[in-house]
Amino acid sequence: MLAIAVASFVVGTVVRVLAAQNDLWFDEVWTLQLLRERVHSFGDVFTNVKHSNNHHLCSLWMWLVGQNASALMYRVPSVLASIGTVALAGFIGSRRSSLEGCIAVILTSWSYLLVHYGTEARGYSLAIFFALLAWYALQQFEERRSWIWTIVFWSAVVLGFLAHLEFAICFAGLVAWALWRLVRHRSKWLQGVLDLFALFAVPIVLLLAFYFVAVRGMEVGGGPEYQVTPLLIKTASYMLGGPASGAAAGIAAILAVASIYVALVYLMFARDDRWIFYAVVIMAPLGLIPILLLVPLSVRYFMISVAASFVLFSSGYTALLRRGVVGLGIGLTLLAIFVAGNAVNTGNLLRFGRGQYLAALRFMEKNSGGREVVITSDHDFRNAMLVNYYKRYLERPDSTQYVDRVTLNEQYVRTNRRSLGAEWLIFHRFDLREQPERVTDDFGNTYQLITIYRYSDLSGWNWLLYHNLNRLPVTPHSPLSQ
Protein backbone atom coordinates (compact mmCIF):
# COMPACT_ATOMS: atom_id res chain seq x y z
CA MET A 1 0.00 0.00 0.00
CA LEU A 2 2.96 2.30 0.60
CA ALA A 3 3.98 2.06 -3.06
CA ILE A 4 0.44 2.96 -4.16
CA ALA A 5 0.42 5.91 -1.77
CA VAL A 6 3.77 7.21 -3.05
CA ALA A 7 2.67 6.80 -6.67
CA SER A 8 -0.61 8.58 -5.88
CA PHE A 9 1.26 11.45 -4.25
CA VAL A 10 3.49 11.86 -7.32
CA VAL A 11 0.53 11.75 -9.71
CA GLY A 12 -1.44 14.15 -7.52
CA THR A 13 1.45 16.61 -7.46
CA VAL A 14 1.92 16.54 -11.24
CA VAL A 15 -1.82 16.90 -11.87
CA ARG A 16 -2.03 19.89 -9.54
CA VAL A 17 0.78 21.68 -11.34
CA LEU A 18 -0.86 21.02 -14.71
CA ALA A 19 -4.31 22.08 -13.53
CA ALA A 20 -2.91 25.38 -12.24
CA GLN A 21 -1.82 26.48 -15.72
CA ASN A 22 -5.20 27.00 -17.37
CA ASP A 23 -7.00 30.35 -17.69
CA LEU A 24 -7.71 32.44 -14.62
CA TRP A 25 -11.45 32.54 -14.05
CA PHE A 26 -13.66 35.46 -13.09
CA ASP A 27 -13.08 35.52 -9.32
CA GLU A 28 -9.32 35.47 -9.78
CA VAL A 29 -9.42 38.25 -12.37
CA TRP A 30 -11.80 40.20 -10.13
CA THR A 31 -9.28 39.97 -7.29
CA LEU A 32 -6.60 41.41 -9.55
CA GLN A 33 -8.89 44.30 -10.43
CA LEU A 34 -9.70 45.01 -6.78
CA LEU A 35 -5.99 44.99 -5.97
CA ARG A 36 -5.18 47.31 -8.85
CA GLU A 37 -7.89 49.79 -7.83
CA ARG A 38 -7.63 49.74 -4.05
CA VAL A 39 -4.26 48.41 -2.86
CA HIS A 40 -1.14 50.57 -2.77
CA SER A 41 0.55 49.10 0.30
CA PHE A 42 0.66 45.90 2.36
CA GLY A 43 -1.93 47.15 4.85
CA ASP A 44 -4.42 48.13 2.15
CA VAL A 45 -5.14 44.45 1.55
CA PHE A 46 -6.75 44.38 5.01
CA THR A 47 -8.20 47.87 5.29
CA ASN A 48 -9.12 48.94 1.75
CA VAL A 49 -10.57 45.75 0.28
CA LYS A 50 -13.44 44.78 2.57
CA HIS A 51 -14.96 42.47 0.01
CA SER A 52 -15.88 38.80 0.10
CA ASN A 53 -13.75 38.23 -2.99
CA ASN A 54 -10.66 39.28 -1.03
CA HIS A 55 -9.06 36.15 0.39
CA HIS A 56 -6.33 37.92 2.31
CA LEU A 57 -3.37 35.54 2.07
CA CYS A 58 -3.90 34.92 -1.64
CA SER A 59 -4.53 38.60 -2.24
CA LEU A 60 -1.25 39.48 -0.55
CA TRP A 61 0.61 37.06 -2.80
CA MET A 62 -1.12 38.31 -5.96
CA TRP A 63 -0.34 41.91 -5.01
CA LEU A 64 3.32 41.03 -4.41
CA VAL A 65 3.80 39.31 -7.78
CA GLY A 66 2.02 42.11 -9.65
CA GLN A 67 -0.56 42.43 -12.39
CA ASN A 68 1.31 40.65 -15.19
CA ALA A 69 2.26 37.29 -13.69
CA SER A 70 1.25 33.94 -15.17
CA ALA A 71 -1.71 31.91 -13.94
CA LEU A 72 0.65 29.36 -12.41
CA MET A 73 2.54 32.06 -10.51
CA TYR A 74 -0.67 33.45 -9.00
CA ARG A 75 -1.68 29.94 -7.97
CA VAL A 76 1.64 28.81 -6.44
CA PRO A 77 0.52 29.20 -2.78
CA SER A 78 -2.66 27.21 -3.44
CA VAL A 79 -0.80 24.45 -5.27
CA LEU A 80 1.80 24.14 -2.51
CA ALA A 81 -0.94 24.14 0.13
CA SER A 82 -2.84 21.44 -1.76
CA ILE A 83 0.25 19.25 -1.97
CA GLY A 84 0.86 19.94 1.72
CA THR A 85 -2.72 18.92 2.48
CA VAL A 86 -2.02 15.46 1.05
CA ALA A 87 1.08 15.13 3.22
CA LEU A 88 -0.76 16.34 6.33
CA ALA A 89 -3.60 13.91 5.74
CA GLY A 90 -0.98 11.17 5.65
CA PHE A 91 0.60 12.37 8.90
CA ILE A 92 -2.78 12.50 10.63
CA GLY A 93 -3.66 9.01 9.47
CA SER A 94 -0.22 7.69 10.40
CA ARG A 95 -0.86 8.64 14.02
CA ARG A 96 -3.06 5.53 14.12
CA SER A 97 -1.28 3.28 11.65
CA SER A 98 0.88 3.41 8.55
CA LEU A 99 -1.94 1.80 6.54
CA GLU A 100 -4.38 4.53 7.57
CA GLY A 101 -1.81 7.15 6.59
CA CYS A 102 -1.38 5.55 3.17
CA ILE A 103 -5.13 5.46 2.58
CA ALA A 104 -5.42 9.14 3.54
CA VAL A 105 -2.69 10.03 1.04
CA ILE A 106 -4.38 8.06 -1.74
CA LEU A 107 -7.81 9.63 -1.13
CA THR A 108 -6.55 13.21 -0.94
CA SER A 109 -4.13 12.80 -3.87
CA TRP A 110 -6.84 11.70 -6.28
CA SER A 111 -9.72 13.84 -5.02
CA TYR A 112 -11.09 15.96 -7.87
CA LEU A 113 -12.46 18.53 -5.44
CA LEU A 114 -9.11 18.97 -3.70
CA VAL A 115 -7.35 19.21 -7.06
CA HIS A 116 -9.85 21.73 -8.39
CA TYR A 117 -9.83 24.10 -5.42
CA GLY A 118 -6.17 23.42 -4.79
CA THR A 119 -5.17 24.91 -8.14
CA GLU A 120 -6.82 28.32 -8.26
CA ALA A 121 -5.72 31.60 -6.73
CA ARG A 122 -8.34 31.60 -4.00
CA GLY A 123 -8.14 30.99 -0.27
CA TYR A 124 -9.82 27.58 -0.05
CA SER A 125 -6.70 25.45 -0.52
CA LEU A 126 -4.80 27.39 2.14
CA ALA A 127 -7.77 27.18 4.51
CA ILE A 128 -7.90 23.40 4.08
CA PHE A 129 -4.16 23.06 4.67
CA PHE A 130 -4.24 25.12 7.86
CA ALA A 131 -7.36 23.28 9.05
CA LEU A 132 -5.55 19.94 8.89
CA LEU A 133 -2.42 21.49 10.36
CA ALA A 134 -4.38 22.90 13.32
CA TRP A 135 -6.06 19.52 13.87
CA TYR A 136 -2.72 17.72 13.74
CA ALA A 137 -1.07 20.25 16.07
CA LEU A 138 -3.93 20.01 18.58
CA GLN A 139 -3.59 16.22 18.76
CA GLN A 140 0.17 16.51 19.12
CA PHE A 141 -0.26 19.05 21.92
CA GLU A 142 -2.70 16.75 23.69
CA GLU A 143 -0.03 14.07 23.82
CA ARG A 144 3.09 16.14 24.51
CA ARG A 145 2.02 19.48 26.04
CA SER A 146 4.78 21.17 24.05
CA TRP A 147 5.05 24.91 23.42
CA ILE A 148 6.22 24.11 19.92
CA TRP A 149 2.87 22.56 19.08
CA THR A 150 1.08 25.40 20.84
CA ILE A 151 2.77 27.91 18.54
CA VAL A 152 2.07 25.74 15.50
CA PHE A 153 -1.59 25.61 16.55
CA TRP A 154 -1.75 29.40 17.01
CA SER A 155 -0.18 29.96 13.61
CA ALA A 156 -2.46 27.49 11.84
CA VAL A 157 -5.63 28.98 13.33
CA VAL A 158 -4.71 32.59 12.57
CA LEU A 159 -3.45 31.84 9.07
CA GLY A 160 -6.49 29.65 8.43
CA PHE A 161 -8.83 32.57 9.08
CA LEU A 162 -6.62 34.86 6.97
CA ALA A 163 -6.89 32.32 4.16
CA HIS A 164 -10.70 32.20 4.25
CA LEU A 165 -13.44 32.73 6.80
CA GLU A 166 -14.64 29.20 6.01
CA PHE A 167 -11.99 28.17 8.53
CA ALA A 168 -14.58 28.96 11.22
CA ILE A 169 -16.04 25.50 10.53
CA CYS A 170 -12.75 23.86 11.50
CA PHE A 171 -12.37 26.15 14.50
CA ALA A 172 -15.75 24.99 15.81
CA GLY A 173 -14.58 21.38 15.58
CA LEU A 174 -11.30 22.16 17.34
CA VAL A 175 -13.10 23.91 20.20
CA ALA A 176 -15.65 21.10 20.53
CA TRP A 177 -12.95 18.42 20.72
CA ALA A 178 -10.84 20.42 23.17
CA LEU A 179 -13.86 20.99 25.44
CA TRP A 180 -14.71 17.29 25.30
CA ARG A 181 -11.20 16.39 26.36
CA LEU A 182 -11.52 18.82 29.26
CA VAL A 183 -14.81 17.27 30.43
CA ARG A 184 -13.49 13.75 29.93
CA HIS A 185 -10.57 14.34 32.31
CA ARG A 186 -12.56 15.82 35.19
CA SER A 187 -9.79 14.95 37.64
CA LYS A 188 -7.53 17.46 35.85
CA TRP A 189 -9.89 20.42 35.54
CA LEU A 190 -7.30 23.06 36.41
CA GLN A 191 -4.76 21.69 33.92
CA GLY A 192 -7.48 21.43 31.28
CA VAL A 193 -8.60 25.03 31.75
CA LEU A 194 -5.00 26.22 31.57
CA ASP A 195 -4.49 24.22 28.38
CA LEU A 196 -7.59 25.75 26.80
CA PHE A 197 -6.39 29.21 27.72
CA ALA A 198 -2.91 28.53 26.36
CA LEU A 199 -4.30 27.17 23.09
CA PHE A 200 -7.12 29.57 22.31
CA ALA A 201 -6.47 32.90 24.07
CA VAL A 202 -3.84 34.22 21.66
CA PRO A 203 -5.67 33.20 18.44
CA ILE A 204 -8.97 34.65 19.68
CA VAL A 205 -7.38 38.01 20.52
CA LEU A 206 -5.69 38.18 17.12
CA LEU A 207 -8.88 37.11 15.33
CA LEU A 208 -10.89 39.81 17.07
CA ALA A 209 -8.39 42.37 15.83
CA PHE A 210 -8.64 40.86 12.33
CA TYR A 211 -12.42 41.07 12.45
CA PHE A 212 -12.57 44.74 13.41
CA VAL A 213 -9.83 45.75 10.97
CA ALA A 214 -10.61 43.65 7.89
CA VAL A 215 -13.96 41.87 8.17
CA ARG A 216 -16.54 44.14 9.78
CA GLY A 217 -18.55 45.92 7.10
CA MET A 218 -17.47 43.49 4.38
CA GLU A 219 -19.27 43.73 1.05
CA VAL A 220 -20.60 40.40 -0.21
CA GLY A 221 -20.25 39.82 -3.93
CA GLY A 222 -22.94 38.16 -6.03
CA GLY A 223 -23.01 34.75 -7.62
CA PRO A 224 -25.07 32.37 -9.72
CA GLU A 225 -28.49 31.22 -8.57
CA TYR A 226 -28.64 27.79 -6.97
CA GLN A 227 -30.90 25.28 -5.25
CA VAL A 228 -29.71 23.81 -1.97
CA THR A 229 -30.55 20.14 -2.55
CA PRO A 230 -28.89 19.79 -5.99
CA LEU A 231 -25.88 21.66 -4.63
CA LEU A 232 -25.49 19.25 -1.71
CA ILE A 233 -25.94 16.27 -4.02
CA LYS A 234 -23.25 17.61 -6.37
CA THR A 235 -20.84 18.15 -3.48
CA ALA A 236 -21.35 14.68 -2.02
CA SER A 237 -21.23 13.01 -5.45
CA TYR A 238 -18.05 14.78 -6.51
CA MET A 239 -16.49 13.79 -3.19
CA LEU A 240 -16.66 10.09 -4.15
CA GLY A 241 -15.88 10.67 -7.83
CA GLY A 242 -19.46 10.71 -9.09
CA PRO A 243 -21.02 13.02 -11.68
CA ALA A 244 -22.44 16.48 -11.03
CA SER A 245 -26.10 15.60 -11.50
CA GLY A 246 -28.57 12.91 -12.47
CA ALA A 247 -29.51 9.59 -10.91
CA ALA A 248 -25.88 8.47 -10.65
CA ALA A 249 -25.05 11.63 -8.69
CA GLY A 250 -27.91 10.92 -6.30
CA ILE A 251 -26.68 7.38 -5.71
CA ALA A 252 -23.10 8.58 -5.16
CA ALA A 253 -24.33 11.24 -2.74
CA ILE A 254 -26.27 8.66 -0.72
CA LEU A 255 -23.19 6.44 -0.58
CA ALA A 256 -21.08 9.40 0.58
CA VAL A 257 -23.49 10.21 3.40
CA ALA A 258 -23.70 6.55 4.37
CA SER A 259 -19.90 6.27 4.38
CA ILE A 260 -19.59 9.28 6.68
CA TYR A 261 -22.20 7.83 9.03
CA VAL A 262 -20.55 4.40 9.13
CA ALA A 263 -17.09 5.87 9.71
CA LEU A 264 -18.36 8.07 12.56
CA VAL A 265 -20.16 5.13 14.18
CA TYR A 266 -17.02 3.00 13.83
CA LEU A 267 -14.97 5.60 15.72
CA MET A 268 -17.66 5.92 18.39
CA PHE A 269 -17.77 2.16 19.01
CA ALA A 270 -13.96 2.11 19.03
CA ARG A 271 -14.10 4.79 21.78
CA ASP A 272 -12.07 7.09 19.58
CA ASP A 273 -13.20 10.61 20.43
CA ARG A 274 -11.89 12.02 17.15
CA TRP A 275 -15.44 11.46 15.90
CA ILE A 276 -16.45 14.63 17.74
CA PHE A 277 -14.13 16.81 15.64
CA TYR A 278 -15.15 15.16 12.38
CA ALA A 279 -18.86 15.26 13.18
CA VAL A 280 -18.77 18.98 13.98
CA VAL A 281 -16.66 19.91 10.94
CA ILE A 282 -18.74 17.83 8.55
CA MET A 283 -22.18 18.68 9.97
CA ALA A 284 -21.65 22.35 10.92
CA PRO A 285 -22.10 23.70 7.36
CA LEU A 286 -25.50 22.00 7.15
CA GLY A 287 -26.61 23.83 10.29
CA LEU A 288 -25.38 27.12 8.84
CA ILE A 289 -27.28 26.79 5.57
CA PRO A 290 -30.23 28.95 6.77
CA ILE A 291 -27.70 31.73 7.44
CA LEU A 292 -25.66 31.06 4.29
CA LEU A 293 -28.81 31.34 2.18
CA LEU A 294 -28.25 35.08 2.43
CA VAL A 295 -25.05 34.73 0.36
CA PRO A 296 -24.36 32.83 -2.90
CA LEU A 297 -23.75 29.26 -1.73
CA SER A 298 -21.31 27.05 -3.60
CA VAL A 299 -19.52 23.71 -3.39
CA ARG A 300 -16.34 25.53 -2.35
CA TYR A 301 -17.86 26.51 1.00
CA PHE A 302 -17.94 22.83 1.99
CA MET A 303 -14.31 22.09 1.17
CA ILE A 304 -12.97 21.90 4.72
CA SER A 305 -15.76 19.44 5.46
CA VAL A 306 -14.80 17.44 2.37
CA ALA A 307 -11.13 17.32 3.40
CA ALA A 308 -12.07 16.23 6.93
CA SER A 309 -14.28 13.52 5.43
CA PHE A 310 -11.34 12.03 3.54
CA VAL A 311 -9.28 11.79 6.73
CA LEU A 312 -12.31 10.22 8.43
CA PHE A 313 -12.77 7.78 5.53
CA SER A 314 -9.19 6.60 5.92
CA SER A 315 -10.10 5.16 9.33
CA GLY A 316 -13.09 3.31 7.90
CA TYR A 317 -11.17 2.04 4.86
CA THR A 318 -8.39 0.75 7.09
CA ALA A 319 -10.85 -1.17 9.25
CA LEU A 320 -12.47 -2.64 6.12
CA LEU A 321 -9.16 -3.71 4.59
CA ARG A 322 -8.34 -5.61 7.76
CA ARG A 323 -11.53 -7.68 7.62
CA GLY A 324 -9.91 -10.66 5.94
CA VAL A 325 -9.85 -11.47 2.25
CA VAL A 326 -13.44 -10.32 1.65
CA GLY A 327 -12.87 -6.99 3.34
CA LEU A 328 -9.63 -6.50 1.44
CA GLY A 329 -11.34 -7.24 -1.87
CA ILE A 330 -14.27 -4.90 -1.18
CA GLY A 331 -11.97 -2.16 0.09
CA LEU A 332 -9.64 -2.29 -2.90
CA THR A 333 -12.60 -2.35 -5.31
CA LEU A 334 -14.13 0.75 -3.69
CA LEU A 335 -10.74 2.45 -3.76
CA ALA A 336 -10.35 1.68 -7.47
CA ILE A 337 -13.84 3.08 -8.22
CA PHE A 338 -12.99 6.21 -6.21
CA VAL A 339 -9.74 6.74 -8.12
CA ALA A 340 -11.36 6.12 -11.53
CA GLY A 341 -14.31 8.45 -10.90
CA ASN A 342 -12.14 11.26 -9.62
CA ALA A 343 -9.69 10.78 -12.50
CA VAL A 344 -12.52 11.31 -14.99
CA ASN A 345 -13.64 14.54 -13.31
CA THR A 346 -10.05 15.76 -13.03
CA GLY A 347 -9.56 14.93 -16.71
CA ASN A 348 -12.36 17.35 -17.57
CA LEU A 349 -10.64 20.02 -15.47
CA LEU A 350 -7.38 19.49 -17.35
CA ARG A 351 -9.19 19.56 -20.70
CA PHE A 352 -11.55 22.51 -20.24
CA GLY A 353 -10.14 24.33 -17.22
CA ARG A 354 -12.26 27.01 -15.61
CA GLY A 355 -13.14 28.40 -19.02
CA GLN A 356 -11.26 28.99 -22.28
CA TYR A 357 -11.53 32.74 -22.47
CA LEU A 358 -8.26 33.52 -24.24
CA ALA A 359 -8.86 30.84 -26.88
CA ALA A 360 -12.34 32.26 -27.48
CA LEU A 361 -10.98 35.79 -27.91
CA ARG A 362 -8.33 34.57 -30.32
CA PHE A 363 -11.04 32.82 -32.33
CA MET A 364 -13.08 36.04 -32.53
CA GLU A 365 -10.00 38.07 -33.48
CA LYS A 366 -9.12 35.62 -36.26
CA ASN A 367 -12.66 35.46 -37.65
CA SER A 368 -13.70 39.11 -37.44
CA GLY A 369 -14.71 40.78 -40.70
CA GLY A 370 -12.61 43.91 -40.20
CA ARG A 371 -9.66 45.00 -38.14
CA GLU A 372 -11.87 45.99 -35.21
CA VAL A 373 -13.14 43.21 -32.92
CA VAL A 374 -16.31 44.53 -31.28
CA ILE A 375 -17.81 42.32 -28.58
CA THR A 376 -20.85 42.49 -26.31
CA SER A 377 -22.52 39.92 -24.06
CA ASP A 378 -25.45 38.96 -21.87
CA HIS A 379 -23.68 40.11 -18.68
CA ASP A 380 -21.53 43.24 -18.89
CA PHE A 381 -19.89 43.00 -15.46
CA ARG A 382 -18.72 39.40 -15.71
CA ASN A 383 -17.77 39.14 -19.36
CA ALA A 384 -16.35 42.64 -19.86
CA MET A 385 -13.88 42.01 -17.04
CA LEU A 386 -12.64 38.82 -18.71
CA VAL A 387 -12.47 40.36 -22.19
CA ASN A 388 -10.56 43.40 -20.95
CA TYR A 389 -8.14 41.22 -18.98
CA TYR A 390 -7.35 38.70 -21.71
CA LYS A 391 -7.26 41.01 -24.72
CA ARG A 392 -3.71 42.04 -23.74
CA TYR A 393 -2.57 38.64 -25.04
CA LEU A 394 -4.09 39.11 -28.51
CA GLU A 395 -2.23 40.12 -31.66
CA ARG A 396 -4.30 43.32 -31.91
CA PRO A 397 -5.28 44.21 -28.33
CA ASP A 398 -5.97 47.85 -29.15
CA SER A 399 -8.45 46.78 -31.82
CA THR A 400 -10.50 44.64 -29.48
CA GLN A 401 -13.32 46.50 -27.77
CA TYR A 402 -16.04 45.40 -25.39
CA VAL A 403 -19.21 47.51 -25.70
CA ASP A 404 -21.72 47.44 -22.86
CA ARG A 405 -25.47 47.86 -23.03
CA VAL A 406 -25.34 51.58 -22.26
CA THR A 407 -23.02 52.19 -25.21
CA LEU A 408 -25.22 50.09 -27.51
CA ASN A 409 -28.30 52.06 -26.41
CA GLU A 410 -26.57 55.35 -27.13
CA GLN A 411 -25.48 54.07 -30.53
CA TYR A 412 -29.02 52.88 -31.28
CA VAL A 413 -30.46 56.32 -30.52
CA ARG A 414 -27.69 58.19 -32.34
CA THR A 415 -28.21 56.17 -35.56
CA ASN A 416 -31.98 56.59 -35.48
CA ARG A 417 -32.53 52.90 -34.67
CA ARG A 418 -30.25 51.68 -37.44
CA SER A 419 -27.40 50.42 -35.32
CA LEU A 420 -25.84 47.20 -36.61
CA GLY A 421 -24.77 46.21 -33.09
CA ALA A 422 -21.56 44.49 -32.04
CA GLU A 423 -20.03 41.89 -34.32
CA TRP A 424 -19.81 39.27 -31.58
CA LEU A 425 -22.25 38.37 -28.83
CA ILE A 426 -21.14 36.20 -25.89
CA PHE A 427 -23.64 34.19 -23.86
CA HIS A 428 -22.20 32.85 -20.61
CA ARG A 429 -23.82 29.69 -19.29
CA PHE A 430 -23.17 27.43 -16.30
CA ASP A 431 -24.66 24.48 -18.19
CA LEU A 432 -25.42 23.72 -21.82
CA ARG A 433 -29.07 22.79 -21.59
CA GLU A 434 -30.03 25.74 -23.82
CA GLN A 435 -28.04 26.40 -27.00
CA PRO A 436 -30.27 28.41 -29.37
CA GLU A 437 -28.91 28.44 -32.92
CA ARG A 438 -29.98 32.06 -33.44
CA VAL A 439 -30.77 34.94 -31.09
CA THR A 440 -31.98 38.48 -31.65
CA ASP A 441 -30.78 41.34 -29.45
CA ASP A 442 -32.93 44.20 -28.15
CA PHE A 443 -32.04 46.28 -31.19
CA GLY A 444 -33.28 43.81 -33.77
CA ASN A 445 -29.88 42.36 -34.78
CA THR A 446 -29.77 38.59 -35.34
CA TYR A 447 -26.80 36.48 -34.27
CA GLN A 448 -25.90 32.91 -35.20
CA LEU A 449 -24.19 30.46 -32.87
CA ILE A 450 -20.70 29.80 -34.18
CA THR A 451 -18.95 27.80 -31.46
CA ILE A 452 -18.89 27.01 -27.75
CA TYR A 453 -15.90 27.20 -25.43
CA ARG A 454 -16.57 24.98 -22.45
CA TYR A 455 -15.47 24.89 -18.84
CA SER A 456 -15.23 21.87 -16.57
CA ASP A 457 -17.52 22.89 -13.66
CA LEU A 458 -17.56 24.64 -10.26
CA SER A 459 -15.44 27.68 -11.24
CA GLY A 460 -16.05 29.77 -14.35
CA TRP A 461 -18.56 29.22 -17.15
CA ASN A 462 -19.11 28.25 -20.77
CA TRP A 463 -18.88 30.88 -23.48
CA LEU A 464 -21.29 30.58 -26.41
CA LEU A 465 -20.03 32.75 -29.28
CA TYR A 466 -22.62 34.30 -31.60
CA HIS A 467 -21.77 36.21 -34.79
CA ASN A 468 -23.82 39.11 -36.15
CA LEU A 469 -25.54 38.21 -39.43
CA ASN A 470 -25.16 41.85 -40.50
CA ARG A 471 -21.43 41.19 -40.92
CA LEU A 472 -19.47 39.02 -43.32
CA PRO A 473 -20.47 35.40 -42.63
CA VAL A 474 -18.40 33.09 -40.42
CA THR A 475 -18.71 29.33 -40.85
CA PRO A 476 -19.97 27.64 -37.66
CA HIS A 477 -17.10 25.86 -36.01
CA SER A 478 -17.57 22.10 -35.88
CA PRO A 479 -17.80 20.55 -33.39
CA LEU A 480 -19.50 23.32 -31.45
CA SER A 481 -17.99 22.32 -28.11
CA GLN A 482 -14.27 23.04 -27.88
Characterise the protein shown here.
The protein is built from 19 helices and six strands. The model has no long low-confidence stretch (mean pLDDT 90). A six-stranded mixed sheet has the order 2-1-3-6-5-4. The protein has 482 residues and is an alpha/beta fold. Helix content is 63%, strand content 7%. It has helices spanning 2-19, 26-38, 44-47, 56-65, 71-94, 98-110, 112-117, 124-144, 147-163, 167-184, 189-215, 228-240, 247-269, 274-292, 303-321, 324-352, 357-366, 380-390, 405-414, and strands at residues 373-377, 400-402, 424-429, 438-440, 446-453, 462-468. The longest helix is centred in the last third of the chain and has 29 residues, at 324-352.
User: Quick one: how many beta strands?
Assistant: 6
Given helix and strand content, the structural type is alpha/beta
Report the span from N to C terminus.
Answer: 39 Å
The assembly state of the depicted protein chains is single chain
Strand order of the largest sheet: 2-1-3-6-5-4
Kindly state the percentage of residues in helix: 55-70%
Low-pLDDT residue intervals, each spanning 5 or more residues = none
The helix/strand series, from N terminus to C terminus, equals HHHHHHHHHHHHHHHHHEHEHEEEE
**Fraction in beta strands:** 5-15%
The biggest sheet amounts to: 6 strands, mixed
Please tell me what the overall shape is. globular
Task: Kindly summarize this structure in a few lines.
With 482 residues, the chain is α/β, with parallel strands linked by helices.
Helices and strands in order:
Layout: H1 2-19, H2 26-38, H3 44-47, H4 56-65, H5 71-94, H6 98-110, H7 112-117, H8 124-144, H9 147-163, H10 167-184, H11 189-215, H12 228-240, H13 247-269, H14 274-292, H15 303-321, H16 324-352, H17 357-366, E1 373-377, H18 380-390, E2 400-402, H19 405-414, E3 424-429, E4 438-440, E5 446-453, E6 462-468
Parallel strand pairs: 1-2, 1-3
Antiparallel strand pairs: 3-6, 4-5, 5-6
